[in-house]
């Protein structure tokens, strides 16, 4: 069987699958899907530019990931190592509509480190080979086991690490092309509390986790109108991650244990098909004079496809569903500049806007996302002829984010506001010309 349904509208399938499966779906309603993010920040100079010039800057080995065609602008061989620390704040304040007792979940984001590596090799003046290792997809959240929304979502991690061999070729003095095979290692884990409908009975817990390897592509074009002006276009394909795990359910009361056990659902295999969005980025770079350069972006990410999650429950009666979380595509715009100061210093700064992928009526606690403004500042210092040390800081502001989730009989209603939501990114990178 296959149905297309909206999340939180599981009642549409009550008459079509067994009562035991319906109960099982109610348990999963807030936990079976992990929210994700595609970040521009991977420890590279893009952090200090708020990503402005993403597909056209091509001034170091990070272009292996941002636009493979940009490698044709690099002379010789070079490597960049990037490190990054993410610190987010998303404090939730429940209101009187929330039905479960509990706290505010403290700060579910906290600290998250990152590391990246980029290498560009000149096979000839026209042919370049490269390699990128980075992680820019995912989110980790932990609200704790006593927060008011634990029956919707408690903690989870969705992370994608990309390994990408890359090639680029200069067709003529103006046009270059490039491409990469994106091999992504994806890890998914999710935990939700189970509300035992017996007074005094402690919560149970439902947990799933799995890892998968999937493949996609990263393609780029670069056209140089002159030595000072160029435009870049990057397109990344979607990547399909098919997670599967036998669900671990513990601490159930006797009523739920009997109901689920009768249908063989206590040893159920759950399949979750998720799609890393396809993206497109158009960028412009212009060197105004010996000191100043300006740059900008227009971008798109296909989050509406990511919001459709294929779910398969394997038990005595295998059931397949497609849940549509009604996500919106995201649109991006950025402006930035860099200034070459006297001596070994160069400074960068940028401003960017990204539209949110969820509205107030579709926002869920596993993805507290909204419209975001990025402010970036950074720079580099030339340590010696073949070595540069870069630094960057980016501030992502999303503000107050309202949430209203009306779940099933066991999960209840979760309502409130994430107040002053924001994320800090701190980056250091080392560029070595070999």
Protein model, in words:
- With 434 residues, the chain is mainly beta.
- Strands 2-3-4-5-6-7-8-12-13-16-17-18-19-20 form a 14-stranded antiparallel barrel.
- The termini are far apart.
- Helix content is 6%, strand content 56%.
- The protein has a single domain (2-433), classed as Porin (Beta Barrel), CATH 2.40.160.60.
- The protein has 4 helices and 20 strands.
- Residues 1-36 have low confidence and may be disordered.
Task: Using brief descriptors, characterize the structure shown.
434 residues; mainly beta; Porin; elongated; disordered N terminus
Biggest sheet features: 14 strands, antiparallel, barrel
The appropriate CATH architecture is Beta Barrel
- Tell me the series of helices and strands, N- to C-terminal: EHHEEEEEEEEEHEEEHEEEEEEE
How many beta strands in the DSSP annotation?
20
CATH class: Mainly Beta
Number of domains: 1
Find the CATH topology.
Answer: Porin
Write the layout of secondary structure elements.
Layout: E1 2-6, H1 19-28, H2 63-66, E2 78-94, E3 110-122, E4 127-142, E5 155-170, E6 175-194, E7 204-224, E8 229-236, E9 239-246, E10 248-250, H3 254-262, E11 269-276, E12 279-287, E13 292-301, H4 303-306, E14 308-314, E15 319-324, E16 330-340, E17 345-354, E18 372-384, E19 387-406, E20 413-433
Parallel strand pairs: 1-15
Antiparallel strand pairs: 2-3, 2-20, 3-4, 4-5, 5-6, 6-7, 7-8, 7-10, 8-12, 9-11, 11-14, 12-13, 13-16, 14-15, 16-17, 17-18, 18-19, 19-20
């Amino acid at each position: 069987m296959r149905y297309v349904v909206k999340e939180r509208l599981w009642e549409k399938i009550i008459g079509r699958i067994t009562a035991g499966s319906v109960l099982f779906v109610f348990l999963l309603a807030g936990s079976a899907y992990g929210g994700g993010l595609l970040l521009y920040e991977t420890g590279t100079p893009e952090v200090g530019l708020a990503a402005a010039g993403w597909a056209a800057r091509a001034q170091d080995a990070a272009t292996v990931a941002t636009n493979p065609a940009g490698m044709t602008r690099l002379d010789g061989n070079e490597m960049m190592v990037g490190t990054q620390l993410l610190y987010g704040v998303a404090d939730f304040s429940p209101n009187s509509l929330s039905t479960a007792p509990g706290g505010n979940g403290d700060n579910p984001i906290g600290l998250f480190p990152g590391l990246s590596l980029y290498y560009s090799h000149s096979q000839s003046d026209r042919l370049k080979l490269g390699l990128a290792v980075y992680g820019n997809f995912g989110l980790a959240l932990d609200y704790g086991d006593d927060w008011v929304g634990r029956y919707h979502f408690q903690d989870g991690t969705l992370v994608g690490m990309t390994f990408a061999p890359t090639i680029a070729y200069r067709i003529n003095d103006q046009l270059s092309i490039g491409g990469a095979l994106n091999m992504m290692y994806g890890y998914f884990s999710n935990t939700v509390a189970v509300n035992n409908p017996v007074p005094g009975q402690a919560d149970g817990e439902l947990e799933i986790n799995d890892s998968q390897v999937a493949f996609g592509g990263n393609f780029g074009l670069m056209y140089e109108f002159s030595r000072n002006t160029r435009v870049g276009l990057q397109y990344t394909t979607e990547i399909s991650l098919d997670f599967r795990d036998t669900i671990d359910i513990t601490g159930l009361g006797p009523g739920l244990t009997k109901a689920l056990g009768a249908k063989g659902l206590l040893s159920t295999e759950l399949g979750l098909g998720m799609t890393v969005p396809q993206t497109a980025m158009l960028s412009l770079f212009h060197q105004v004079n010996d000191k100043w350069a300006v740059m900008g972006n227009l971008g798109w990410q296909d989050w509406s496809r990511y919001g459709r999650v294929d779910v398969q429950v394997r038990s005595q009666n295998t059931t397949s569903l497609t849940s549509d979380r009604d996500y919106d595509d995201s649109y991006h715009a950025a402006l930035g500049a860099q200034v070459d100061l006297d001596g070994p210093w160069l400074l960068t700064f940028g401003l960017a806007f990204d539209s949110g992928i969820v509205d107030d009526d579709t926002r869920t606690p596993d993805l507290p996302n909204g419209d975001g403004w990025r402010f970036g500042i950074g720079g580099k210092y030339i340590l010696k002829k073949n070595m540069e040390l870069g630094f960057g800081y980016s501030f992502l502001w999303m503000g107050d984010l309202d949430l209203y989730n009306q779940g099933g009989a066991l999960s209840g209603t979760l309502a409130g506001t994430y107040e002053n939501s924001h994320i800090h990114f701190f980056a250091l990178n080392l560029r070595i010309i070999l």
